Amino acid sequence: MVITDETIEYVGILAKLELSDEAKEQAKKDMSDMLDYVSKLNELDTDNVPAMSHAFPVNNVFREDVVTSGDTREQLLSNAPEQKDGCYKVPKTFD
């Protein structure tokens, strides 16, 4: 596939890039090389290759959402440096 100057201009507009003439030529060459590589990959016979979504066998591991007894207020406040009326007491951040 041949990459034209119009294609490079259009991609530059989409990417909001102002490319110099040298950068446009380099981008045209790079895009052409990428498309050539993809077309080479399309030549591979993948009929008997199973589809996959990840390179490694990964399964979602879900745990049952079980409610436990939880922490009590006394346990939560036991490590508080200061407390007042059953709540954490913190310094003022502004007046």
Task: Describe the structure in your own words.
- The chain is mostly helical.
- It has a domain at 5-41: Orthogonal Bundle (Histone, subunit A), CATH 1.10.20.
- Helix content is 38%, strand content 4%.
- The protein has helices at residues 5-14, 21-41, 73-77; strands at residues 83-84, 87-88.
- Strands 1-2 form a two-stranded antiparallel ribbon.
- A hairpin with a 2-residue loop joins strand 1 and strand 2.
- It starts with a helix and ends in a 7-residue tail after the last strand.
- The mean pLDDT is 88.
SSE blueprint:
Elements: H1 5-14, H2 21-41, H3 73-77, E1 83-84, E2 87-88
Antiparallel strand pairs: 1-2
Strand content: under 5%
**Whole-angstrom Rg:** 30 Å
The CATH class name of the domain at 5-41 reads: Mainly Alpha
**Main β-sheet description:** 2 strands, antiparallel
Q: What is the first-to-last residue Cα distance?
A: 68 Å
What is CATH's topology name of the domain at 5-41? Histone, subunit A
CATH architecture tag of the domain at 5-41: Orthogonal Bundle
Task: Give me the number of helical elements.
Answer: 3
